[in-house]
Design brief:
The complex is a heterodimer of chains A (230) and B (415). With 230 residues, chain A is an alpha/beta fold. In chain A, 35% of the residues lie in helices and 28% in strands. Chain A contains seven helices and ten strands. In chain A, the strands form two sheets. Chain A has a six-stranded mixed beta sheet with strand order 6-7-8-3-9-10, with helices on both faces. The longest helix of chain A has 18 residues, at 177-194. Chain B has two domains: 2-50 and 273-412, no CATH class; 65-258, no CATH class. Chain B is elongated. Classes of the chains: A alpha/beta (230), B alpha+beta (415). The complex binds adenosine-5'-triphosphate (ATP) and magnesium ion.
Chain lengths: 230, 415
């Protein structure tokens, strides 16, 4: 049984008179513990696809099943709960909460979303900060650390609730090449250690090389998939 | 909850300058209300104290029709001896009444043998007057015995006449009065004291003993123009007035009209309406404060929601429930109001305490050197704090709701 299943998914955006078909009849299955990347030119539908899997948006047609839940049927409240329970997010702009320290940012989902008791929270936060190598910076605020460091904190925040899937839309777009590789490396390592499924989108062909499975999108359709390294 | 408060307060002080500006604005409003209520309230109670303790007392009883023509000082609308005999037991047996003083009021001429002037006079029983208006004698200078401040053959004149007539304590003056039948009579009296003028209808009166008044007006029986009544508790004036009015309403004359009329002090002086104006002004300052809070909190919260849209998108995306997002922004508005109120209350009460320590002196009409010692209006402080905090919550409601209803996809795309 696959972790994520998309059946005949179509997404059409309507803006006034014009309607844009961002995704067209997508069928896709993703197994647990995969490390997957979507590539494709600008406007090909990568963000749209990730938003649908991330339960941030609803498909116009078709079903999306994640963790045995048909997520296109969830309402706002249950959608938020599902995201908090099963998903982790890493954003292009890092999106750390500026008024919280590194430690507090990673703690946030446990505290404000999941209500985990204090001792367990502490172990998990410190453990993940150690894994992404940010333990020594834990009392700094986001504006006191570099972009690469912010993205590593974001990875820790995405993983702290032990989600089944981490979704990352262009996580390296705002990082230089070396830092980008480092962040992707950390994600791979986390996948290996924790068995979490990672799905990310990118423009950068050099980074794509690290993915196990690469889907190429064009005009809202999957045109090709290949195993990494081939 | 603790975390929501922590995040809300940190967000509040993220834009320090903006928050400080708003806080200052609201604090100034709170300070204004508190100081205004403190000063206005104590001004009111000081004035009411002077009026009720040295002039009008709390309630007055007259013959029906007297107050209507009070400006003419009517001589023919008096309570007769019989009517006084009916009234007195009712006053004596009323537990709310501490003391009462029958007075004969009339206008007369006063002359120092060189010049002549007009004078309004009150003929009183000094010990009853003293019991009814205990601070009256504080206004007198030159009086040796405050209990028996004026004896037959003596007069206390208002200070304006001291200058006008060029007389002083110890001098003899002649009082010439006309009674209700038009008969003129004169009486030579010795000045034993000078009364400081106060605002109000009876603020520039002279005092003589009631026996002299009876002689001067050639009255065969002791008729009374007004009975001033002091209550045990000044706050009871409304109830006491209503009860007394009720008790006297049954006393009818032969033609079926009422014999007695009863008035509370505030119906006998214009200060009643000045007191209302003070209340109205305090009310207006309060309304202005509420508008300030409403507009500034709403403004700052709408700006916050707009500026932090992508942040809201982030926390929503990672699973924060709409309800928590709502609480986060409500808490922010709440604390904006709370901190401002706290600052305002501390400064406002501080200012009032300072004024208690260094009282303000002021002049009101003929009354000079009045000292204004403000009370701390505790009720006002609590009410104002409550209102500001509630209005802040109310003003944050719409922006907070907007934040909680943002779709994460749209919000995330917002830069
Ligand atoms: N909210 C929207 N309203 C209308 N059209 C949209 C919206 N979001 C995306 N689109 C359209 O859908 C198509 C797919 O957009 P999407 O953002 O998924 O592409 P993308 O592959 O992520 O591109 P990029 O590499 O530039 O991020 C585009 O044609 C885009 O214009
Ligand atoms: Mg995109």
């Amino acid at each position: 049984m696959s972790l994520i299943k998309m059946e005949n998914v179509t997404k059409i955006y309507h803006t006034g008179e014009i309607s844009v078909t961002a995704l067209q009849n997508i069928n896709l299955e993703i197994d647990k513990g995969s490390f997957i990347s979507f590539i494709g030119p600008s406007g090909s539908g990568k963000t749209t696809l990730l938003n649908l899997i991330g339960c941030l948006d609803k498909p116009t047609e078709g079903d999306i099943i994640v963790n045995d839940v048909k997520i296109n049927l969830l309402d706002r409240k249950n959608g938020a709960k599902f995201r908090g329970d099963s998903l982790g997010f890493v954003f292009q702009n890092f999106n750390l909460v500026p008024v919280l320290t590194v430690y507090e940012n990673v703690e946030y989902p446990l505290l404000m979303v999941k209500n985990v008791p204090v001792s367990e929270r502490r172990t998990r936060v410190l453990d993940l900060l150690e894994k992404v190598n940010m333990l020594d910076q834990k009392n700094k605020y986001p504006n006191q650390i570099s972009g690469g460091q912010k993205q590593r904190v974001a990875v820790a925040r995405a993983l702290v609730t032990n989600p089944s899937v981490v979704l990352a839309d262009e996580p390296t777009a705002n990082l230089d090449h070396k830092t980008a590789l480092k962040v992707i490396d950390i994600m791979r390592q986390m996948k290996k250690e924790l068995g979490t499924t990672f799905i990310f989108s990118t423009h950068d062909p050099k980074i794509v090389g690290n993915a196990e499975i690469v889907y190429t999108l064009e005009d809202g359709k999957i045109v090709n998939n290949k195993k990494g390294g081939e | 909850m603790k975390n929501i408060i922590k995040i809300a307060i940190r967000n509040l002080f993220r834009y320090t300058r903006r928050t400080l500006l708003t806080t200052t604005l609201i604090s100034i409003g709170v300070i204004l209300v508190i100081v205004f209520a403190g000063l206005g309230g104590s001004f009111k109670s000081a004035m009411i104290g002077i009026i009720t303790d040295s002039m009008l007392a709390d309630v007055q009883v007259h013959k029906s029709g007297y107050v209507e023509t009070i400006d003419n000082i009517p001589l023919n609308i008096f309570l007769t001896e019989n009517e006084m005999e009916v009234l007195q037991p009712k006053l004596d047996n009323n537990a709310k009444i501490e003391a009462y003083s029958p007075r004969i009021k009339f206008g007369a001429m006063i002359s120092d043998y060189n010049q002549t002037s007009n004078i309004r006079l009150s003929g009183v029983y000094p010990e009853k007057e003293q019991a009814t208006c205990p601070t009256l004698t504080d206004r007198f200078s030159g009086v040796s015995d405050p209990i028996n401040f004026v004896k037959p053959g003596e007069i206390i004149i208002p200070d304006i006449l001291v200058k006008g007539l060029n007389v002083e304590i110890g001098n003899d003056v002649v009082i010439v009065g006309t009674n209700r039948h038009g008969s003129v009579n004169g009486l030579s009296l010795k000045i034993v004291g000078v009364s400081e003028g106060v605002m109000g209808p009876q603020g520039k009166e002279g005092f003589i003993h009631i026996e002299d008044a009876l002689n001067l007006l050639r009255m065969d029986e002791t008729e009374i123009s007004e009975v001033a009544i002091r209550l045990n508790r000044g706050e009871d004036v409304k109830i006491a007035y209503t009860e007394l009015n009720q008790a006297l309403s049954g006393e009818k004359s032969e033609d079926g009209s009422r014999i007695y009329e009863v008035h509370p002090w505030n119906k006998l002086t214009h200060f009643g309406s000045i007191a209302n104006i003070v209340d109205l002004l305090i009310m207006m300052v309060r309304v202005i404060l509420i508008s300030i809070v409403l507009i500034s909190v709403m403004n700052i919260m709408m700006m916050s929601v707009f500026e932090r849209t992508s942040e809201i998108g982030t926390i929503a995306a990672i699973g924060t429930s709409p309800r928590k997002i709502l609480s986060l922004f409500l808490a922010e508005g709440f604390f904006l109001g709370f901190i401002s109120t706290l600052a305002g209350v501390i400064i406002g009460v501080g200012l009032l305490l300072f004024m208690q320590w260094q009282p303000v002196q002021f002049t009101f009409g003929p009354m000079e050197n009045l000292v204004l010692i403000p009370d701390i209006p505790i009720k006002e402080v609590l009410a104002t704090s409550g209102i500001v905090v509630l209005v802040s919550l109310f003003a944050s409601w719409q922006p907070a709701r907007k934040a909680s209803k943002l779709e994460p996809v749209d919000a995330l795309g917002h830069v």
